[in-house]
Amino acid sequence: MDQTYKPTESAPAVRIMVLETDIPHPDTQSARGSFGQILHNHFAKAGRAHHPPLEVETDQVYVVTEKGGRMPTVDDFDRFDGLLITGSVYDAHANNEWILQLLDLLKALWIKRPDFHFVGVCFGHQLLARLLGGSVAPAPSQDWELGHCRITLTPVGQRLFRSRKDHIYLHQMHQDQVVAPPTSASAGPDMLPPNTEVACWGRSEHTPVQGLYIPNRLFTTQAHLAFDEDMVKRQIQIRVDSGGIKDLEHADRAAETAHLEHDGVEVAKAVLRLFSYDHDE
Fold first, then answer.
1. Crossing angle of the two packed helices 97-112 and 123-131, in degrees rounded to 10
2. Could you report the per-residue pLDDT of 248-275, keeping only the tens digit for each?
């Protein structure tokens, strides 16, 4: 489903293919649509704040083929400037056939389209790290990072978010994490030129790699940028019901933070600057 936000007739456009790797809670789907639709609306808001305003166009495809999804081809991305991989209940370090197919697709796009932009959220963050030779595994502590969390920004993060503060707040929903970030050596010369810096823009006590950044190429975030209070509570409940989250007290404490303000729009604005320079300093 194509969706477009047009601030003006002459506004420059950013065209993003959203690869949906999960389906929201039925109540969220009814109220706000699929994860791709939710992200479209979130980025449209960020596009309005861009200088000059940006038109945001998205299309979505559900790629979990074992659940009725479809894996796109490289040619399906011809008219897009980049892609965004959503969060998922699946493990980014797993070898499900659709995950391996998605990695093959991402590698082909990375090599064929040096102008293409890659964005990942949660599962997407971890999968793009894996694509470039990083390692993904459950947290050494074996616990979950849940709910409203403080992320300490590196100097790169402060530049990305144009912030004098040394932290932002976002909602978290993960046990797995990037345990060894990618480098140009781990990616190999076909993927990254030697000595390319894969920067980490933030960290937390639970998760040392909260996001990755390569100028004009890659932006990932372990945390979620478009979750609202209801979504946080519902996604926690899904993982409790499935047995993924076993510490119910931890889950309850996290749900109690769901109403707190977060910096998801600032993250979306930084993502859009990956595509188009923002003149507002």
1. 60
2. 999 999 999 999 999 999 999 999 999 9
